[in-house]
Please model this.
Amino acid sequence: MNLRTVTILWPTIFLLITSTAEAALSVERSRIIFNEGDKAVSLGVTNNNTQDPYLAQAWMENEKEEKISGPFMILPPVQRVEAGSKTRVRIQAATGIATLPGDRESVFWLNLREIPPKSDKPNVLMLAMQTRMKVFWRPKSIKVDPSADTVPGTSTLTLALHGGRYEIHNPTPYHFSFVEVRNGLHGKGLANFEPVMVEPKGKATLPVSAAQAGNTPVLMFINDYGSARLLPFRCSGTTCTAGKVEMPGEKN
Model:
């Protein structure tokens, strides 16, 4: 999912501040799958502001959110996007791509910061909006059919009860990003849930109590195309097994 952060270009406090929370630059998707063998993947960027040009600054970070220069490079790292126009950011494989694990996905972050033109009006605080998205590098050994709605092995995910909370076990070589938990397939999303990403062959604890999620918890995850899907579980004792993937709003 897209994450938006705000960076203040000039931290001086003014008596009168005028700003907007709307991002001028938008991207065409919420995640990128970079398959082994691809030389590059491009991302469409649109300047929704019809009055002013913006600079688009892009860079990559690793899983620890540290800025990196490989195994990917961004071209161009900075570019001007005219008012109301479109451009593309290119993610290109670089030195070090061959060192990534060949049996599971690796995850990186693409950052795109918009830099607005300097205002000629007094007492104005300009804000730089930033978009972050996940980039998944997928080796040939686990390549997914582009027509598939979900990755193989989704039904093998399980939940285990530990200390009053459910722990997600992911035996697959793919990352899973969970953005919501429901008590029952047609229940509402539980409040105060923070998104959780479970790494390949890893596990993570849900940030809500098992009592809230109930004996038929449903986890919402995001597929390769940025669409939400529901994964229902049925629990017996301290273990829960996954059922058929559903689309939100679908009724049986």
